[in-house]
Structures are given as structure tokens and as C-alpha cells.
Design a protein that fits this description.
Length: 250
């Protein structure tokens, strides 16, 4: 188990870092037209948006997803394809096939490797996957969706690590692995659901304190695992867009 830093201690060095939003993946554009349209609002601080057609690229090109992804790309927003690693059990050939479909059909800019493993033993195979994806797309932006702090070696294989994905009641008292202090905030992402509007400022403070440069906070919940809380806009969308990038007093 990694040594942990209590967030009441000294913060990471965040001077000059710019916080932004990472969108884990909305519902289909026909089901969430407002959500996709809002992402094209000028000056929205987006680091990346995940395109998840059908737990991956789907079986055939989807013109609605192509249009939504194209608008973001034309606006200079990085679009990532969703690849589910199933905690390291996903067949390598299937992953590569899905990656090819994303590249051929949607011209994405990288990948979110959802449910990436985090243990040391799985690192070589994950490195193999990452290397193959970079061979297919040399400038690929790779985000490993661990959801918790992985073995430190994973940081050398990805552009970003999702080191927290879960509910606010856990996040507000969470701790950060000591080794993350060796990397800048732009290397880490936190995805948190169930954040009440009255606690948004506190949540942003925790993210900055723990050194996360990319975040997605929402007041939506998973309703005991039956709903994707990240599939729609948070109720305080306008507020979080306006707050991102501001300094938070400690």
C-alpha cells in the first residue's frame, strides 16, 4: 500500500497549473443533445471529452456521433475513444480492433482506458496496450482510468491517470499517494459524483490540494449502481464552468 498524504498537510506545488474539465462520456447525442451542445460553448475549459458510442466504438459508424465529435475537434477540443480494459482481462485483439474502429470512423485524438488495472503485475500488459495505441496514433493522448491510485510505474505509460472515481462522501475525506507529488497536476484526473452544489467550492479545493489538474464533478448520483452519474450535465454546470481556473484560498 502506498504511503498516503493527509490533505490537511502541505499541498502540491500548483503554481501556474490550469484546472480543466474531463468529460467521461455523455449519452448518445440524440439522447443528450443539450449536453453535447454545451460542450461547444466558447471558453468552456475542456481538457478532453470521451466519445463512448456503445461501450466502445460500436459495430458501425454512427453519423450522429461523428458529427458531435467533429464539432469538438474543429473547436480544438481533444476527443478520446472509450476502451474498456476490464481490469486487465480484456482480449488484446479486441482492444486493438476497437481502437482501429475509433480511428477509422471518428478520427479521435486518443483513448480513455476505462477500468485499467492498477497492480504491478498487470503493468507489462498495460504497457503493451499503450505502446500499440501509440503506434497506431503517435500523438495519442492516453488516460488510464484506474479510479484509484495505481502502482507508480503506470504514470510512465500514460499522459494522465484517473486516481479517483467515485462518490463525494468518499472523496471529501480521501488521501493522495505520496508518489504523485513527483508529477505535475496535469497528470492526474478526479471524477466525482454526488457533489452537492453547496460543496462545490470544497470539492475544487480538495482537487487542487491533492494535485488534480483535470476534474469532473457532478451532483448526479449512481442511484445504487443503476444510473451513470457522469452521463449528463451537472445541475450547476454554469457555476462550475465559471469557477474552473480560479484560485481557491486555502
Amino acid at each position: 500500500m502506498p504511503h498516503l498524504i493527509d490533505r490537511t498537510g502541505p499541498a502540491h506545488a500548483l503554481a501556474g497549473s490550469t484546472m480543466g474539465l474531463g468529460v467521461p462520456g455523455y449519452a448518445h447525442p440524440l439522447l443528450a443533445p443539450v449536453e453535447w451542445a454545451e460542450l461547444n460553448r466558447p471558453d468552456t475549459p475542456l481538457h478532453w471529452v470521451v466519445l463512448n458510442v456503445a461501450n466502445g466504438p460500436g459495430d458501425r459508424p454512427d453519423p450522429h456521433c461523428l458529427e458531435a465529435a467533429g464539432r469538438l475537434s474543429n473547436a480544438g477540443v481533444r476527443v478520446l475513444g472509450h476502451l474498456d480494459l476490464c481490469h486487465g482481462t480484456r482480449d488484446f485483439g479486441e482492444l486493438v480492433s476497437d481502437a482501429h474502429r475509433y480511428l477509422d470512423w471518428y478520427r479521435i485524438d486518443g483513448f480513455l482506458l476505462h477500468r485499467a488495472p492498477g497492480e504491478r503485475a498487470a503493468l507489462p500488459e498495460t504497457r503493451r496496450v499503450a505502446g500499440t495505441l501509440r503506434a497506431l496514433l503517435p500523438e495519442a493522448h492516453l488516460v488510464f482510468g484506474h479510479g484509484t491510485h495505481p502502482y507508480p510505474g503506470y504514470a510512465e505509460e500514460a499522459d494522465q491517470l484517473v486516481t479517483f472515481s467515485g462518490q463525494w462522501s468518499d472523496y471529501r475525506w480521501s488521501q493522495v499517494a505520496e508518489w504523485t507529488a513527483e508529477y505535475p497536476p496535469e497528470r492526474f484526473c478526479h471524477l466525482v459524483h454526488g457533489v452537492p452544489g453547496g460543496h462545490l467550492e470544497e470539492a475544487l479545493r480538495v482537487a487542487r490540494w491533492q494535485g488534480a489538474g483535470t476534474i469532473w464533478f457532478t451532483d448526479r448520483t449512481d442511484r445504487h449502481g443503476t444510473v451513470d452519474p457522469f452521463g449528463a450535465l451537472p445541475g450547476y454546470w454554469d457555476e462550475i464552468v465559471s469557477r474552473i481556473g480560479r484560485s481557491v484560498s486555502e
